[in-house]
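Below is the record:
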Amino acid sequence: MITSALFYTFAAILIAAALGVILSRNPVHSALFLVLAFVQSSVLWLLIEAEFLAIVLVLVYVGAVMVLFLFVVMMLDINVEELREGFTRYFWVGAGVALFVVIEVGQVIWYRSQNLEFMVRPESLPADYSNTKELGSVLYTEHVYAFELAAMLLLLAIVAAITLTMRKRPGLKAQDITRQVSVRREDRVRIVSMDSTKD
């Protein structure tokens, strides 16, 4: 009973955070709402006893990917008004996709409430069972190449974000170290001889 109450509470917060990501006018606020959505998703993973996936979701997505998102959003100087000009054009497509997802989730909840044979819940695992150990043994043996490929994609995303922020902008003042070091006194100071005057 308490597990169901916790599930619906955290699921409601997750839905509210997802709506905040979409409806927020500030891209930084959208990124922070996405952080909240990731944290609520990790709590839902904890409720189904998938501790490793919950920790990975917090460490990788909240700790690394979201920091990358925030760097990109804050350093690219995005013009939000231009992005929102064509928002209404895609409203009906987004509404249709959202309605389709809601119908699918509703069907899953309804089927689970019918106690059908193909929806029987799995048996509880023993106390000494470690899903982290089982997941690690599969991840680093059968799927090690996919794991390494994901790491390379994350590295590529970081390099791409840095490259995008290094572009030249009009009116941006850059520091020229060589010119500063090779400066001479005659280039900076001009001594003028003037006759003294009486006021």
